[in-house]
TrEMBL record:
Keywords: DNA-binding, Membrane, Transmembrane, Transmembrane helix, Two-component regulatory system. InterPro entries: LytR-like, LytTR_DNA-bd_dom, LytTR_MHYE. This is LytTR family DNA-binding domain-containing protein. The chain crosses the membrane at residues 12-30, 50-70, 91-115, 135-152. Residues 178-281 form the HTH LytTR-type domain. PROSITE patterns: HTH_LYTTR (PS50930). It comes from Luteimonas endophytica. The lineage of its organism: Bacteria, Pseudomonadati, Pseudomonadota, Gammaproteobacteria, Lysobacterales. GO terms for molecular function: DNA binding.
């Protein structure tokens, strides 16, 4: 599979990835718990560990998008590690509370369906115990997220501006083309050839025909570089080349989709839709 093909269905693959990770963990824990119960005299039905683990897994999966959003706001990158780490540590508290609340609600529904009552226990003790587990899970999820992003960048071939890393050379606006370095090779990219730009964690990806150029740059930074070059922000994670937009497909919700000449489809949020229409007109 080529990176371009993967990125077209990226959200679907990422959802399947998280379901697989959390699902395997839940199944393994349910099996081992039942094995331990078989060796003890505890009056616990075999279905109960499955309810415990599956309810926890479903609640955690629902929180993954929130964790990703917090990481976008506080990325663990050079120069911001301490501040971002403290932000993540602070967020781990509401993360745990939301996880426990959703988990307990699901368990109560499952137990009621089986004709039983579910008791979580002493909330003061149980919440402390659950937080100790959840803060480890939070760190585990963050590690998976950063490993996934690293592997994706390696697969695409991470690129960078040739002036990157030189403190005496601040970011400069692009005239009509710029040089980037990818996999040890230098490429000349014409601004007019860029179809659209997508945010990817701490990086942005330039979509240039069938080629992808992941750059360690922010959306605000790349937007500043391309100021006055016919590009428009259409989403918090997307910038399009106005000359490459073929059609705007509106939705009743106020959002839209931009169909590009190269075949790509870019989400347009309500916030930017009207401005995009005016610029295209």
């Amino acid at each position: 599979m080529q990176p371009q093909t993967y990125l077209q269905h990226r959200r679907l693959y990422e959802a399947a990835f998280w379901i697989l990770i959390v699902g395997v963990h839940a199944v393994a824990n349910s099996i081992t718990t039942n094995i331990d119960l078989a060796r003890s005299d505890l009056a616990i039905a075999r279905w109960e560990p499955w309810v415990w683990e599956c309810s926890s897994a479903v609640a955690l999966l629902a929180l993954v998008p929130l964790l990703v959003a917090v990481d976008r706001r506080f990325p663990l990158e050079r120069g911001r590690v301490r501040r971002s780490a403290l932000a993540h540590l602070a967020f781990s508290v509401p993360f745990s509370l939301l996880h426990v609340a959703a988990m307990v609600a699901l368990r109560e529904l499952a137990y009621a369906a089986m004709g039983y009552d579910y008791r979580f226990g002493d909330w003061r003790v149980a919440l402390g115990y659950e937080y100790l587990k959840d803060v480890r899970t939070y760190g585990y999820f963050l590690a998976i997220l950063y490993l996934y992003r690293f592997a994706l960048r390696r697969w695409q071939g991470e690129a960078g501006f040739l002036t990157e890393g030189r403190e005496d050379r601040p970011a400069e606006p692009v005239v009509d083309r710029f040089l980037i370095k990818k996999l040890g090779r230098e490429f000349l990219v014409r601004v007019d050839d860029i179809d659209w730009i997508e945010a990817a964690g701490n990086y942005v990806t330039l979509h240039v025909g069938e080629r992808l150029y992941p750059l360690r740059e922010t959306m605000a930074g790349i937007q500043a570089r391309l100021e006055g070059q016919g590009f428009a922000r259409v989403h918090r994670s997307a910038i399009v080349n106005l000359d490459r937009v073929r059609e705007i497909e509106p939705f009743d919700t106020g959002d839209a989709r931009a169909h590009m000449h190269g075949g790509g489809v870019v989400a347009v949020s309500r916030r930017y839709r009207q401005a995009l229409k005016e610029r295209l007109a």
